[in-house]
Design goal:
Helix 15 links the parallel strand 9 and strand 10. The longest helix is centred in the N-terminal third of the chain and has 30 residues. The strands form three sheets. This protein has a six-stranded parallel β-sheet with strand order 3-2-1-4-5-6, with helices on both faces. By secondary structure, the chain is of the alpha/beta class. Helix content is 50%, strand content 13%. Helix 12 packs parallel to helix 14 and helix 13 crosses helix 19. It is a multi-pass membrane protein.
Protein backbone atom coordinates (compact mmCIF):
# COMPACT_ATOMS: atom_id res chain seq x y z
CA UNK A 1 0.00 0.00 0.00
CA UNK A 2 1.32 3.45 -0.90
CA UNK A 3 2.45 5.54 2.02
CA UNK A 4 0.17 8.63 2.14
CA UNK A 5 3.02 10.87 3.27
CA UNK A 6 4.99 9.97 0.15
CA UNK A 7 2.29 11.64 -1.94
CA UNK A 8 3.31 15.00 -0.50
CA UNK A 9 6.72 14.62 -2.09
CA UNK A 10 5.75 13.04 -5.40
CA UNK A 11 2.11 13.96 -5.99
CA UNK A 12 1.04 12.83 -9.46
CA UNK A 13 -1.39 14.74 -11.60
CA UNK A 14 -5.04 13.99 -10.84
CA UNK A 15 -6.05 14.54 -14.44
CA UNK A 16 -6.71 11.56 -16.67
CA UNK A 17 -4.20 11.29 -19.49
CA UNK A 18 -4.53 9.29 -22.64
CA UNK A 19 -1.78 8.23 -24.97
CA UNK A 20 0.00 11.28 -26.31
CA UNK A 21 -0.10 11.68 -30.02
CA UNK A 22 3.25 11.98 -31.81
CA UNK A 23 4.47 15.55 -32.06
CA UNK A 24 6.38 17.17 -34.86
CA UNK A 25 9.94 17.92 -33.85
CA UNK A 26 10.40 21.70 -33.92
CA UNK A 27 13.75 23.44 -34.02
CA UNK A 28 14.55 25.35 -30.86
CA UNK A 29 14.43 29.07 -31.80
CA UNK A 30 17.27 31.39 -30.84
CA UNK A 31 15.73 34.64 -32.04
CA UNK A 32 14.71 37.12 -29.37
CA UNK A 33 13.00 40.53 -29.49
CA UNK A 34 16.33 42.30 -29.78
CA UNK A 35 17.84 43.88 -32.88
CA UNK A 36 21.21 42.68 -34.15
CA UNK A 37 24.01 45.00 -33.04
CA UNK A 38 25.60 45.24 -36.50
CA UNK A 39 22.25 46.09 -38.08
CA UNK A 40 21.72 48.80 -35.47
CA UNK A 41 25.11 50.33 -36.24
CA UNK A 42 24.48 50.32 -39.98
CA UNK A 43 21.01 51.79 -39.60
CA UNK A 44 21.96 54.56 -37.16
CA UNK A 45 25.25 55.43 -38.87
CA UNK A 46 23.86 55.43 -42.41
CA UNK A 47 23.15 59.17 -42.64
CA UNK A 48 26.38 60.33 -40.90
CA UNK A 49 28.45 58.09 -43.18
CA UNK A 50 26.64 59.34 -46.30
CA UNK A 51 27.26 62.94 -45.22
CA UNK A 52 30.94 62.24 -44.50
CA UNK A 53 31.47 60.43 -47.83
CA UNK A 54 29.70 63.23 -49.71
CA UNK A 55 31.88 65.91 -48.06
CA UNK A 56 35.02 63.88 -48.75
CA UNK A 57 34.06 63.29 -52.40
CA UNK A 58 33.20 66.93 -53.08
CA UNK A 59 36.47 68.03 -51.46
CA UNK A 60 38.55 65.59 -53.54
CA UNK A 61 36.97 66.31 -56.91
CA UNK A 62 36.77 70.05 -56.25
CA UNK A 63 40.51 70.19 -55.52
CA UNK A 64 41.22 68.11 -58.63
CA UNK A 65 39.21 70.49 -60.85
CA UNK A 66 40.72 73.77 -59.59
CA UNK A 67 43.69 74.80 -61.79
CA UNK A 68 47.00 75.32 -60.03
CA UNK A 69 50.05 77.35 -60.93
CA UNK A 70 50.67 77.44 -64.68
CA UNK A 71 47.14 76.17 -65.28
CA UNK A 72 48.06 72.61 -64.30
CA UNK A 73 45.64 70.55 -62.21
CA UNK A 74 46.61 67.86 -59.76
CA UNK A 75 45.39 64.33 -60.46
CA UNK A 76 42.34 62.90 -58.67
CA UNK A 77 44.65 60.44 -56.88
CA UNK A 78 46.89 63.22 -55.59
CA UNK A 79 43.79 65.15 -54.51
CA UNK A 80 42.49 62.06 -52.70
CA UNK A 81 45.87 61.57 -51.00
CA UNK A 82 46.04 65.22 -49.88
CA UNK A 83 42.42 65.39 -48.62
CA UNK A 84 42.87 62.07 -46.77
CA UNK A 85 45.66 63.23 -44.50
CA UNK A 86 44.24 66.74 -44.26
CA UNK A 87 40.62 65.77 -43.47
CA UNK A 88 41.77 63.28 -40.85
CA UNK A 89 43.69 66.12 -39.07
CA UNK A 90 47.04 64.39 -39.59
CA UNK A 91 48.57 67.19 -41.68
CA UNK A 92 51.61 66.83 -43.90
CA UNK A 93 51.90 69.97 -46.00
CA UNK A 94 51.18 70.83 -49.61
CA UNK A 95 52.30 68.21 -52.13
CA UNK A 96 52.79 71.06 -54.71
CA UNK A 97 52.65 74.81 -54.23
CA UNK A 98 48.96 75.77 -54.17
CA UNK A 99 47.32 78.87 -55.58
CA UNK A 100 45.19 81.05 -53.30
CA UNK A 101 42.03 79.54 -54.83
CA UNK A 102 43.24 76.02 -54.07
CA UNK A 103 44.12 77.01 -50.51
CA UNK A 104 40.68 78.58 -50.09
CA UNK A 105 39.09 75.34 -51.27
CA UNK A 106 41.28 73.30 -48.92
CA UNK A 107 40.26 75.58 -46.04
CA UNK A 108 36.59 74.99 -46.90
CA UNK A 109 37.23 71.23 -47.09
CA UNK A 110 38.94 71.17 -43.67
CA UNK A 111 36.04 72.83 -41.89
CA UNK A 112 33.49 70.74 -43.80
CA UNK A 113 35.15 67.43 -42.94
CA UNK A 114 35.56 68.47 -39.28
CA UNK A 115 31.82 69.09 -39.14
CA UNK A 116 31.20 65.74 -40.84
CA UNK A 117 33.48 63.90 -38.44
CA UNK A 118 31.86 65.58 -35.45
CA UNK A 119 28.42 64.56 -36.69
CA UNK A 120 29.50 60.95 -37.28
CA UNK A 121 31.37 60.58 -33.97
CA UNK A 122 28.54 62.20 -32.02
CA UNK A 123 26.03 59.81 -33.56
CA UNK A 124 28.28 56.84 -32.79
CA UNK A 125 28.71 57.90 -29.15
CA UNK A 126 24.95 58.35 -28.82
CA UNK A 127 24.49 54.86 -30.26
CA UNK A 128 26.81 53.40 -27.63
CA UNK A 129 24.59 54.94 -24.94
CA UNK A 130 21.40 53.63 -26.53
CA UNK A 131 19.69 50.96 -24.40
CA UNK A 132 18.63 48.82 -27.36
CA UNK A 133 22.18 48.79 -28.76
CA UNK A 134 23.72 47.80 -25.41
CA UNK A 135 21.05 45.11 -25.04
CA UNK A 136 21.87 43.78 -28.51
CA UNK A 137 25.60 43.70 -27.73
CA UNK A 138 24.97 42.00 -24.38
CA UNK A 139 22.72 39.43 -26.07
CA UNK A 140 25.36 38.55 -28.65
CA UNK A 141 28.08 38.38 -25.98
CA UNK A 142 25.82 36.11 -23.90
CA UNK A 143 25.25 33.85 -26.89
CA UNK A 144 28.98 33.53 -27.55
CA UNK A 145 29.66 32.68 -23.88
CA UNK A 146 27.01 29.96 -23.95
CA UNK A 147 28.48 28.43 -27.10
CA UNK A 148 31.91 28.24 -25.47
CA UNK A 149 30.58 25.88 -22.77
CA UNK A 150 31.70 22.39 -23.74
CA UNK A 151 30.66 20.60 -20.52
CA UNK A 152 27.08 19.55 -19.69
CA UNK A 153 25.16 22.46 -18.17
CA UNK A 154 21.81 23.39 -16.65
CA UNK A 155 19.65 26.37 -17.54
CA UNK A 156 18.48 28.11 -14.34
CA UNK A 157 15.53 30.46 -14.84
CA UNK A 158 15.34 32.79 -11.84
CA UNK A 159 18.24 34.07 -9.73
CA UNK A 160 16.43 34.94 -6.53
CA UNK A 161 17.19 33.34 -3.17
CA UNK A 162 16.46 29.81 -4.40
CA UNK A 163 18.28 30.34 -7.69
CA UNK A 164 21.39 31.72 -6.02
CA UNK A 165 21.49 28.85 -3.54
CA UNK A 166 21.09 26.28 -6.31
CA UNK A 167 23.75 27.91 -8.50
CA UNK A 168 26.20 28.12 -5.61
CA UNK A 169 25.82 24.42 -4.82
CA UNK A 170 25.97 23.42 -8.49
CA UNK A 171 29.15 25.46 -8.86
CA UNK A 172 30.59 23.84 -5.74
CA UNK A 173 29.84 20.42 -7.25
CA UNK A 174 31.67 21.38 -10.45
CA UNK A 175 28.54 21.65 -12.61
CA UNK A 176 28.07 24.38 -15.23
CA UNK A 177 24.97 26.52 -15.58
CA UNK A 178 23.40 29.38 -17.55
CA UNK A 179 21.19 31.92 -15.75
CA UNK A 180 18.11 33.81 -16.98
CA UNK A 181 16.33 36.44 -14.90
CA UNK A 182 14.12 39.37 -15.82
CA UNK A 183 15.76 41.53 -13.11
CA UNK A 184 19.03 43.05 -14.34
CA UNK A 185 20.25 43.70 -10.79
CA UNK A 186 20.01 39.99 -10.00
CA UNK A 187 21.93 39.05 -13.14
CA UNK A 188 24.62 41.59 -12.23
CA UNK A 189 25.15 39.71 -8.94
CA UNK A 190 26.63 36.84 -10.94
CA UNK A 191 29.84 38.79 -11.34
CA UNK A 192 30.06 39.58 -7.61
CA UNK A 193 29.08 36.13 -6.32
CA UNK A 194 32.10 33.99 -5.57
CA UNK A 195 31.54 31.30 -8.20
CA UNK A 196 34.41 29.25 -9.53
CA UNK A 197 33.16 28.93 -13.11
CA UNK A 198 32.22 31.67 -15.56
CA UNK A 199 28.40 31.69 -15.49
CA UNK A 200 26.69 33.38 -18.47
CA UNK A 201 23.65 35.40 -17.45
CA UNK A 202 21.06 37.47 -19.29
CA UNK A 203 18.21 39.68 -18.13
CA UNK A 204 15.31 38.52 -20.29
CA UNK A 205 11.90 36.90 -20.14
CA UNK A 206 12.49 33.18 -19.57
CA UNK A 207 8.98 32.34 -20.78
CA UNK A 208 9.98 33.12 -24.39
CA UNK A 209 11.19 30.10 -26.39
CA UNK A 210 13.77 32.28 -28.14
CA UNK A 211 15.35 33.25 -24.82
CA UNK A 212 15.61 29.62 -23.73
CA UNK A 213 17.09 28.78 -27.12
CA UNK A 214 19.58 31.60 -26.73
CA UNK A 215 20.52 30.14 -23.33
CA UNK A 216 21.37 26.83 -24.97
CA UNK A 217 18.17 24.78 -24.79
CA UNK A 218 18.86 23.38 -28.24
CA UNK A 219 22.50 22.49 -27.56
CA UNK A 220 23.34 18.80 -27.13
CA UNK A 221 25.23 19.41 -23.86
CA UNK A 222 22.23 20.99 -22.13
CA UNK A 223 21.28 18.40 -19.48
CA UNK A 224 18.23 20.01 -17.90
CA UNK A 225 16.26 23.13 -16.99
CA UNK A 226 15.41 24.48 -13.52
CA UNK A 227 12.58 27.04 -13.32
CA UNK A 228 12.78 28.99 -10.04
CA UNK A 229 11.26 32.39 -10.85
CA UNK A 230 8.73 34.01 -8.52
CA UNK A 231 6.07 33.98 -11.25
CA UNK A 232 4.06 30.77 -11.68
CA UNK A 233 3.10 31.71 -15.25
CA UNK A 234 6.75 32.08 -16.24
CA UNK A 235 7.66 28.76 -14.64
CA UNK A 236 4.76 27.08 -16.39
CA UNK A 237 5.85 28.58 -19.71
CA UNK A 238 9.38 27.23 -19.16
CA UNK A 239 7.98 23.74 -18.49
CA UNK A 240 5.88 23.97 -21.65
CA UNK A 241 8.82 25.09 -23.80
CA UNK A 242 11.09 22.31 -22.57
CA UNK A 243 8.46 19.59 -22.93
CA UNK A 244 7.45 20.69 -26.44
CA UNK A 245 10.90 21.53 -27.84
CA UNK A 246 13.25 19.18 -25.91
CA UNK A 247 11.01 16.49 -24.35
CA UNK A 248 14.00 14.30 -23.50
CA UNK A 249 15.37 16.89 -21.06
CA UNK A 250 14.29 16.90 -17.39
CA UNK A 251 12.75 20.11 -16.08
CA UNK A 252 12.28 20.97 -12.40
CA UNK A 253 9.91 23.80 -11.58
CA UNK A 254 8.70 25.80 -8.61
CA UNK A 255 5.07 26.85 -8.18
CA UNK A 256 2.80 28.34 -5.52
CA UNK A 257 -0.66 26.98 -6.37
CA UNK A 258 -2.05 23.52 -6.96
CA UNK A 259 -3.73 24.67 -10.18
CA UNK A 260 -0.36 25.57 -11.66
CA UNK A 261 1.10 22.34 -10.26
CA UNK A 262 -1.52 20.31 -12.13
CA UNK A 263 -0.83 22.20 -15.35
CA UNK A 264 2.87 21.54 -15.00
CA UNK A 265 2.24 17.84 -14.46
CA UNK A 266 0.30 17.78 -17.71
CA UNK A 267 3.54 18.71 -19.46
CA UNK A 268 5.48 15.88 -17.79
CA UNK A 269 7.70 17.97 -15.52
CA UNK A 270 10.33 15.81 -13.81
CA UNK A 271 9.50 17.46 -10.49
CA UNK A 272 7.10 20.21 -9.43
CA UNK A 273 7.96 21.77 -6.08
CA UNK A 274 5.19 23.63 -4.31
CA UNK A 275 7.06 24.83 -1.20
CA UNK A 276 3.95 25.50 0.88
CA UNK A 277 2.55 22.07 0.13
CA UNK A 278 5.97 20.44 0.62
CA UNK A 279 6.34 22.04 4.04
CA UNK A 280 2.95 20.70 5.04
CA UNK A 281 4.20 17.23 4.15
CA UNK A 282 7.37 17.73 6.19
CA UNK A 283 5.34 19.03 9.13
CA UNK A 284 3.05 16.00 9.09
CA UNK A 285 6.10 13.78 8.76
CA UNK A 286 7.60 15.40 11.88
CA UNK A 287 4.32 14.90 13.74
CA UNK A 288 3.51 11.33 12.72
CA UNK A 289 6.93 9.83 12.01
CA UNK A 290 9.55 11.94 13.82
CA UNK A 291 12.45 9.52 13.33
CA UNK A 292 11.94 9.39 9.57
CA UNK A 293 11.67 13.16 9.52
CA UNK A 294 14.93 13.51 11.44
CA UNK A 295 16.71 11.14 9.06
CA UNK A 296 15.47 12.77 5.85
CA UNK A 297 15.79 16.39 6.93
CA UNK A 298 19.26 15.78 8.39
CA UNK A 299 20.58 14.15 5.22
CA UNK A 300 19.05 16.89 3.04
CA UNK A 301 20.53 19.72 5.11
CA UNK A 302 23.86 21.39 4.37
CA UNK A 303 26.95 19.36 5.19
CA UNK A 304 28.12 19.95 8.75
CA UNK A 305 24.70 20.84 10.18
CA UNK A 306 24.27 19.12 13.57
CA UNK A 307 21.53 16.57 14.15
CA UNK A 308 19.00 18.25 16.43
CA UNK A 309 17.70 16.43 19.46
CA UNK A 310 14.24 15.04 18.73
CA UNK A 311 11.42 16.39 20.85
CA UNK A 312 8.99 13.84 22.25
CA UNK A 313 6.05 16.25 22.22
CA UNK A 314 2.58 15.06 21.41
CA UNK A 315 1.43 16.92 18.32
CA UNK A 316 -2.19 15.78 18.18
CA UNK A 317 -4.64 18.45 19.26
CA UNK A 318 -5.64 22.00 18.38
CA UNK A 319 -3.42 23.95 15.98
CA UNK A 320 -3.62 27.75 15.66
CA UNK A 321 -2.68 28.98 12.20
CA UNK A 322 -1.96 32.72 11.93
CA UNK A 323 -1.15 32.85 8.23
CA UNK A 324 -2.28 34.22 4.89
CA UNK A 325 -2.17 33.50 1.18
CA UNK A 326 -1.31 30.15 -0.41
CA UNK A 327 0.65 29.08 2.66
CA UNK A 328 -2.45 29.38 4.87
CA UNK A 329 -4.58 27.34 2.46
CA UNK A 330 -1.98 24.59 2.05
CA UNK A 331 -1.06 24.22 5.72
CA UNK A 332 -4.68 24.22 6.92
CA UNK A 333 -5.60 21.64 4.30
CA UNK A 334 -2.66 19.39 5.24
CA UNK A 335 -3.39 19.55 8.97
CA UNK A 336 -7.08 18.87 8.40
CA UNK A 337 -6.28 15.85 6.23
CA UNK A 338 -4.12 14.53 9.06
CA UNK A 339 -7.10 14.68 11.42
CA UNK A 340 -5.94 17.72 13.41
CA UNK A 341 -8.24 20.40 14.79
CA UNK A 342 -7.30 23.59 12.91
CA UNK A 343 -8.23 27.15 13.87
CA UNK A 344 -7.28 29.95 11.48
CA UNK A 345 -6.83 33.52 12.75
CA UNK A 346 -5.89 36.73 10.97
CA UNK A 347 -2.25 37.54 11.89
CA UNK A 348 -2.92 41.29 11.59
CA UNK A 349 -5.67 41.37 14.24
CA UNK A 350 -3.53 40.98 17.32
CA UNK A 351 -2.29 37.94 19.19
CA UNK A 352 -4.61 34.89 19.18
CA UNK A 353 -5.67 32.91 22.24
CA UNK A 354 -3.09 30.11 22.52
CA UNK A 355 -3.93 28.46 25.84
CA UNK A 356 -4.60 24.77 25.38
CA UNK A 357 -3.23 24.69 21.84
CA UNK A 358 -0.81 21.98 20.74
CA UNK A 359 0.89 23.94 18.01
CA UNK A 360 1.08 27.48 16.63
CA UNK A 361 2.05 28.47 13.07
CA UNK A 362 3.17 32.07 12.43
CA UNK A 363 2.88 32.40 8.65
CA UNK A 364 2.13 36.00 7.71
CA UNK A 365 3.84 37.78 4.83
CA UNK A 366 6.00 39.76 7.30
CA UNK A 367 9.09 38.11 8.74
CA UNK A 368 9.18 40.57 11.64
CA UNK A 369 5.54 39.90 12.57
CA UNK A 370 6.13 36.14 12.47
CA UNK A 371 9.06 36.40 14.88
CA UNK A 372 7.02 38.60 17.21
CA UNK A 373 4.11 36.12 17.22
CA UNK A 374 6.52 33.22 17.84
CA UNK A 375 8.02 34.95 20.87
CA UNK A 376 4.54 35.69 22.25
CA UNK A 377 3.58 32.03 21.83
CA UNK A 378 6.68 30.96 23.76
CA UNK A 379 5.79 33.37 26.60
CA UNK A 380 2.22 32.08 26.79
CA UNK A 381 3.15 28.39 26.64
CA UNK A 382 6.84 27.33 26.63
CA UNK A 383 5.85 23.78 25.57
CA UNK A 384 3.78 24.72 22.52
CA UNK A 385 5.15 23.54 19.15
CA UNK A 386 6.02 26.70 17.19
CA UNK A 387 6.35 26.92 13.41
CA UNK A 388 7.63 30.13 11.78
CA UNK A 389 7.51 31.15 8.13
CA UNK A 390 10.48 33.20 6.93
CA UNK A 391 10.66 34.71 3.46
CA UNK A 392 14.28 35.83 3.70
CA UNK A 393 17.35 34.01 4.99
CA UNK A 394 18.85 37.27 6.29
CA UNK A 395 17.14 36.85 9.70
CA UNK A 396 18.30 33.27 10.15
CA UNK A 397 20.35 34.19 13.23
CA UNK A 398 17.25 35.60 14.97
CA UNK A 399 15.29 32.44 14.21
CA UNK A 400 18.04 30.28 15.71
CA UNK A 401 18.20 32.49 18.79
CA UNK A 402 14.45 32.02 19.35
CA UNK A 403 14.88 28.21 19.24
CA UNK A 404 11.98 27.68 16.85
CA UNK A 405 10.76 24.08 16.54
CA UNK A 406 10.23 24.22 12.77
CA UNK A 407 11.16 26.96 10.30
CA UNK A 408 9.65 27.24 6.83
CA UNK A 409 11.88 29.15 4.40
CA UNK A 410 10.56 28.60 0.85
CA UNK A 411 13.87 29.33 -0.87
CA UNK A 412 15.79 26.88 1.33
CA UNK A 413 13.20 24.14 0.91
CA UNK A 414 13.11 24.51 -2.88
CA UNK A 415 16.89 24.70 -3.18
CA UNK A 416 17.50 21.63 -1.02
CA UNK A 417 15.07 19.48 -2.99
CA UNK A 418 16.31 20.69 -6.37
CA UNK A 419 19.90 19.98 -5.40
CA UNK A 420 19.00 16.55 -4.04
CA UNK A 421 17.41 15.68 -7.38
CA UNK A 422 19.99 17.30 -9.66
CA UNK A 423 23.43 16.90 -8.06
CA UNK A 424 22.93 13.29 -6.93
CA UNK A 425 19.68 11.91 -8.42
CA UNK A 426 20.39 8.55 -6.79
CA UNK A 427 20.07 10.24 -3.40
CA UNK A 428 16.47 11.21 -4.15
CA UNK A 429 15.60 7.54 -4.65
CA UNK A 430 16.92 6.99 -1.13
CA UNK A 431 14.70 9.79 0.21
CA UNK A 432 11.62 8.35 -1.47
CA UNK A 433 12.51 4.89 -0.16
CA UNK A 434 12.97 6.22 3.38
CA UNK A 435 9.58 7.91 3.27
CA UNK A 436 8.00 4.56 2.48
CA UNK A 437 9.62 2.69 5.40
CA UNK A 438 8.54 2.42 9.02
CA UNK A 439 10.06 4.11 12.05
CA UNK A 440 12.17 1.07 12.98
CA UNK A 441 13.94 1.15 9.61
CA UNK A 442 14.57 4.90 9.95
CA UNK A 443 15.90 4.47 13.50
CA UNK A 444 18.29 1.72 12.38
CA UNK A 445 19.51 3.80 9.43
CA UNK A 446 19.97 6.89 11.61
CA UNK A 447 21.89 4.90 14.23
CA UNK A 448 24.13 3.36 11.58
CA UNK A 449 24.94 6.79 10.16
CA UNK A 450 25.58 8.56 13.45
CA UNK A 451 27.66 5.71 14.90
CA UNK A 452 30.07 5.82 11.98
CA UNK A 453 29.88 9.43 10.71
CA UNK A 454 28.99 11.42 13.83
CA UNK A 455 26.08 13.78 14.40
CA UNK A 456 26.94 16.33 11.72
CA UNK A 457 25.23 16.11 8.34
CA UNK A 458 27.51 14.09 6.04
CA UNK A 459 28.77 14.85 2.56
CA UNK A 460 27.55 12.64 -0.31
CA UNK A 461 29.46 11.14 -3.20
CA UNK A 462 28.60 8.72 -6.02
CA UNK A 463 31.21 6.07 -6.78
CA UNK A 464 30.89 4.54 -10.25
CA UNK A 465 32.81 1.33 -10.85
CA UNK A 466 34.00 1.72 -14.43
CA UNK A 467 37.29 2.27 -16.20
CA UNK A 468 36.86 6.01 -16.32
CA UNK A 469 36.11 6.68 -12.65
CA UNK A 470 37.62 3.66 -10.87
CA UNK A 471 40.03 1.91 -13.27
CA UNK A 472 41.99 -0.10 -10.68
CA UNK A 473 38.88 -1.29 -8.81
CA UNK A 474 37.10 -2.16 -12.07
CA UNK A 475 39.97 -4.35 -13.28
CA UNK A 476 40.10 -6.10 -9.92
CA UNK A 477 36.36 -6.92 -9.63
CA UNK A 478 36.38 -8.45 -13.12
CA UNK A 479 38.52 -11.34 -11.88
CA UNK A 480 38.38 -11.28 -8.06
CA UNK A 481 35.90 -10.89 -5.24
CA UNK A 482 35.64 -7.43 -3.70
CA UNK A 483 33.05 -6.74 -1.03
CA UNK A 484 31.37 -3.42 -0.39
CA UNK A 485 32.93 -3.26 3.07
CA UNK A 486 36.40 -3.47 1.45
CA UNK A 487 35.65 -0.18 -0.29
CA UNK A 488 35.05 1.41 3.10
CA UNK A 489 38.33 0.34 4.71
CA UNK A 490 41.01 2.83 5.69
CA UNK A 491 43.92 2.47 3.22
CA UNK A 492 46.36 3.14 6.07
CA UNK A 493 44.78 0.66 8.48
CA UNK A 494 42.64 -2.05 6.89
CA UNK A 495 41.07 -3.03 10.22
CA UNK A 496 39.61 0.45 10.69
CA UNK A 497 36.50 1.47 8.76
CA UNK A 498 36.24 4.93 7.27
CA UNK A 499 33.53 7.33 8.46
CA UNK A 500 31.46 6.40 5.41
CA UNK A 501 28.10 4.60 5.06
CA UNK A 502 26.69 3.28 1.76
CA UNK A 503 23.17 4.59 1.19
CA UNK A 504 22.32 3.11 -2.20
CA UNK A 505 23.93 0.50 -4.46
CA UNK A 506 22.56 0.89 -7.98
CA UNK A 507 22.95 -2.28 -10.09
CA UNK A 508 21.41 -2.72 -13.55
CA UNK A 509 18.99 0.11 -12.81
CA UNK A 510 17.77 -1.47 -9.56
CA UNK A 511 18.53 0.40 -6.31
CA UNK A 512 19.54 -1.46 -3.14
CA UNK A 513 18.99 0.89 -0.19
CA UNK A 514 21.20 0.67 2.89
CA UNK A 515 22.88 -2.35 1.27
CA UNK A 516 24.57 -5.15 3.19
CA UNK A 517 28.27 -4.34 3.34
CA UNK A 518 29.10 -7.97 2.52
CA UNK A 519 27.67 -7.59 -1.01
CA UNK A 520 30.15 -8.32 -3.81
CA UNK A 521 30.73 -5.43 -6.19
CA UNK A 522 30.48 -5.79 -9.96
CA UNK A 523 31.62 -3.65 -12.90
CA UNK A 524 29.03 -0.98 -13.64
CA UNK A 525 27.77 -0.71 -10.06
CA UNK A 526 27.14 2.75 -8.62
CA UNK A 527 27.47 3.27 -4.87
CA UNK A 528 26.07 6.38 -3.21
CA UNK A 529 27.99 6.93 0.01
CA UNK A 530 27.58 9.45 2.82
CA UNK A 531 30.35 10.41 5.16
CA UNK A 532 32.85 12.96 6.32
CA UNK A 533 34.68 14.86 3.61
CA UNK A 534 38.11 13.56 4.60
CA UNK A 535 36.84 9.99 4.71
CA UNK A 536 35.35 10.27 1.23
CA UNK A 537 38.70 11.51 -0.06
CA UNK A 538 40.46 8.55 1.58
CA UNK A 539 38.52 6.18 -0.69
CA UNK A 540 40.32 7.50 -3.78
CA UNK A 541 43.41 5.21 -3.65
CA UNK A 542 41.20 2.09 -3.73
CA UNK A 543 39.59 3.39 -6.93
CA UNK A 544 42.78 4.30 -8.75
CA UNK A 545 45.73 2.28 -7.38
CA UNK A 546 46.23 -1.42 -8.03
CA UNK A 547 48.19 -1.91 -4.80
CA UNK A 548 45.51 -0.22 -2.67
CA UNK A 549 42.77 -2.41 -4.20
CA UNK A 550 44.66 -5.63 -3.53
CA UNK A 551 45.51 -4.57 0.02
CA UNK A 552 41.87 -3.67 0.74
CA UNK A 553 40.63 -6.99 -0.66
CA UNK A 554 43.24 -9.38 0.74
CA UNK A 555 45.15 -7.56 3.46
CA UNK A 556 48.46 -8.22 1.73
CA UNK A 557 51.02 -5.40 1.68
CA UNK A 558 51.79 -5.14 -2.03
CA UNK A 559 54.94 -3.28 -3.19
CA UNK A 560 54.30 -0.11 -5.09
CA UNK A 561 56.86 -0.67 -7.88
CA UNK A 562 56.32 -3.10 -10.76
CA UNK A 563 59.57 -4.95 -9.99
CA UNK A 564 58.58 -5.38 -6.36
CA UNK A 565 55.16 -6.77 -7.31
CA UNK A 566 56.77 -9.23 -9.79
CA UNK A 567 59.19 -10.51 -7.13
CA UNK A 568 56.37 -10.84 -4.60
CA UNK A 569 54.24 -12.87 -7.01
CA UNK A 570 57.21 -15.13 -7.82
CA UNK A 571 57.84 -15.78 -4.13
CA UNK A 572 54.15 -16.46 -3.57
CA UNK A 573 54.05 -19.01 -6.41
CA UNK A 574 57.15 -20.71 -5.03
CA UNK A 575 55.54 -21.02 -1.59
CA UNK A 576 52.43 -22.49 -3.14
CA UNK A 577 54.46 -25.13 -5.04
CA UNK A 578 56.31 -26.10 -1.86
CA UNK A 579 53.03 -26.39 0.01
Amino acid sequence: MTNPLLLFFARPSTRQHGVRRPRERVRVPTEVPSTDAIFLVLRRMRTPLVVLVAIFSISVFGLALIPGKGGQRISPFDAFYFISYTATTIGFGEIVPFTPIQRLWVTFSIYSTVVGWAYAIGTLLALFQDASFREAVATQRFRRRVLTIKEPFFIVAGYGQSGRAVCAELDEAGRRMVVIDSDKDRVDKLSSDQLHADVPGIDADASLPGVLGLAGLGLPNCEGVIALTDDDDVNLAVVMCVDLLRPELPVLARCHSRVTEERMHDFSAAAVINPSDRFGGYLLLAMQRPTTFHLVSWLMSSAGMPLQARREDKHDGRWIVAAEGHFRDEICNDLSRAGQEVEWVDPHEGYPELRGATGFIAGSDSDTLNLAMAEHARLVDPEIFVVVRQHSTERRALVRALDIDSVYTPSDLVASEVLARVVTPTFWTFVEHALGQDEDWAAAALTRLTDRCGRKAPERDLVTIDLRNAPALTRWVRNHDFRLCDLLRDPEDRERMLAVVPLVLMRDGTPHHMPDEDMLLRPGDQVLVAGRLGALASMTPVLLQETAVEHAATGRDVPITWVGRAVTRAVERRRQRRA
